[in-house]
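Handout, section B. The chain below has 338 residues.
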Amino acid sequence: MYLEIDGGYGEGGGQMVRSGLALSCITGRPVRIFNIRKNRRIPGLGAQHVTTARILQKMSGARVEGAEKGSTEIRFAPGDVTDLETSEEIGTAGSISLVLQVAILAAAASKRRLKCTISGGTDVPWSPTINYTRYVLGAAYARMGMHFSVDVHRRGYYPKGGGSATLSVNPSSLRPASFSKRDSNVRLVCTYSKMQADEIEAQVGRIQDELSGGGVTVDSEIRRQDAADPGASLLAYGAGKDSVIGADALFDKKMRSFDLDTDCLVCSPGVDANLADMLVVPASLCGAKTTFRIREITRHLETNLYVASKITGCRYGIGKIDDGFEVIVEGVSHAGIK
């Protein structure tokens, strides 16, 4: 019996597909996801969603129907998750980071090893940069007992992509965590290809001065890394004892600058808005309460809370606090996790 999930719920994008397939793989519950990306200009599965389904199919021996580009419905019936070593190609500049999010969860929560080399886009619009995945998601997931590494071989910017990275995931034991108090230290990491070094350095210096003026201690690192297209990405993040907060941006070639949300780094109480929805799936499986504080409730977060509670039976609550909201997820130790 397939669990029915309406992919048009909430933000109506790819998040429902990623979280639904990951939780199906982890818990062993077959899912049928329909109305996929209903609220997008071009509905249906994109290249990265198809790649994600292919990796999870290999990991779990799943029976899969509808895993083609443009499909608005997918059926996924997993078997037992096993260790896997594989290579995948998304094509052009499809987001490697969005694929990694799912692969990390499925392997770590299932207590399996995964080594996966993926080619595609490492730093592309409408997705986290690869450095956000490495440093921000890596720090947050480590607090929750999940450990992974990402080795970037080549950067891939829009439109050609051509980037390559290898993900390594170790078997994990999920545990709850609390993210409730931001840290005042920030690190800037910038990578660029086929651009003038002095222009990039000036932009990083501007942002460093802006953050320092707000009472934040900042250090920075700039690296030139080859890619098929000219481009640059910037990550600013802080991983303190009780918080993990990050903001990333791509270099805008028309404006000749990074449009970085520096307010996020000085105003977010525990985690940034993008990280918040990435914490929901592991929190739903911990068997205890995970707490995090955020500035705002996004539709991505609402979507993940919906799909996680539907598949795992976890409970959650959202309360207003002085500087934003507190989210509590009471996870379930699911019998499908061996």
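Note. The longest strand covers residues 185-193. Compare this with the example in section A.
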